[in-house]
């Protein structure tokens, strides 16, 4: 895991970055690896890949963070990327794998109400995706919206949102 994280930092080759991110994401299926990746500063390194200009690298970084977000301590670190993830969802091509990867991460990050406030500005986007997206996109957006709607503090924001 340490070598993969160092490889991510050392290369600018998108194909190598994608493969390293896929492997890190798959490794995160085991909770012990989630802690190891966090302790190796892997979350911030993977999070840094969200600014990459190559969509496939962003998508693989989102998938890795999604798998890593199954851990409360990891969520505490990943939450700093929520605004950026929302921007990626908004700017990604409609129904793209990149958009779906961002929505999956937002679904996990919205299971508890701790970070709902960071998604308020994206509610109009979510509602737009709900009306314009394919069934896969709609299902993923509904998961985020259901999580947000479970928080009474979000009611006003959800009902006032302009689409």
What does this protein look like?
This protein is mostly helical and 163 residues long. The chain folds into 2 domains: 1-78, Alpha Horseshoe (Leucine-rich Repeat Variant), CATH 1.25.10.10; 80-162, no CATH class. It has 11 helices and no strands. It has helices at residues 2-10, 14-27, 31-39, 42-48, 55-68, 72-78, 82-91, 97-109, 123-132, 135-149, 155-160. Helix 8 runs parallel beside helix 10 and helix 9 packs antiparallel against helix 10 (135-149). The longest helix has 15 residues, at 135-149. The termini are far apart.
Features:
163 residues, mainly alpha, Leucine-rich Repeat Variant, 11 helices, 70% helix
Could you give a short description of this structure?
The chain has 163 residues and is mainly alpha-helical.
């Amino acid at each position: 895991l340490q070598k993969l994280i160092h490889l991510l930092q050392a290369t600018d080759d998108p194909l190598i970055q994608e493969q390293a991110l896929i492997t890190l994401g798959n490794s995160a299926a085991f909770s012990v690896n989630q802690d190891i990746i966090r302790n190796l500063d892997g979350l911030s390194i993977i999070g840094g890949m969200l600014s990459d200009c190559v969509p496939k690298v962003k998508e693989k970084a989102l998938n890795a963070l999604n798998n890593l977000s199954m851990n409360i301590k990891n969520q505490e670190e990943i939450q700093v990327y929520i605004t950026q993830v929302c921007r990626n969802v908004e700017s990604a091509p409609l129904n793209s794998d990149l958009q779906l990867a961002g929505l999956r991460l937002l679904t996990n990050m919205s299971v508890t109400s701790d970070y709902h406030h960071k998604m308020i500005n994206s509610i109009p986007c979510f509602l737009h995706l709900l009306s314009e997206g394919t069934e896969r996109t709609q299902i993923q957006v509904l998961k985020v919206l259901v999580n947000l709607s479970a928080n009474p503090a979000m009611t006003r924001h959800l009902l006032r949102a302009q689409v």
